[in-house]
Amino acid sequence: MDASLNADLYEQVVQGIADTRKKSEAEVRALLDGGPFLPEDALPRRLIDDVAYEDQVDVKLRAGDDRPRVDGDEYARISASSLGLNRGPQLR
């Protein structure tokens, strides 16, 4: 069962990368087979868009974007039920 779920997840990742990077699924598989990659090696292969340190991420995300941001702690306080989502039974 684990192998089947992992294979399915891998195919979803391959398809998602292929779609967004305008590559064939065979090209993406070949790229991934060459990994794992350091960020600096993944960049020229177009597996990632940019490399940044944690303190640079917010600046890069906000560049040219004037929309207000929600703080992570504030975001975590939003309940699923307030958005009309049902989390199902809770484990205790």
Description of the molecule:
With 92 residues, the protein is an all-alpha fold. It has one domain (2-66). The chain contains five helices and no strands. The chain is extended. The model has no long low-confidence stretch (mean pLDDT 84).
Summarize the structure.
With 92 residues, the protein is mainly alpha-helical.
List strands and helices in order, with pairings.
Blueprint (H helix, E strand, L loop, with lengths): L1 H20 L3 H9 L5 H4 L11 H9 L9 H5 L16
SSE class: mainly alpha
Q: Which runs of at least 5 residues are low in confidence (pLDDT < 50)?
A: none
Number of strands: 0
Number of helices: 5
Task: Profile the largest sheet.
Answer: none
Radius of gyration (CA) equals: 19 Å
Q: Could you give the order of the helices and strands?
A: HHHHH
Number of domains: 1
Output the keywords.
mainly alpha, 0% strand, 92 residues, 5 helices
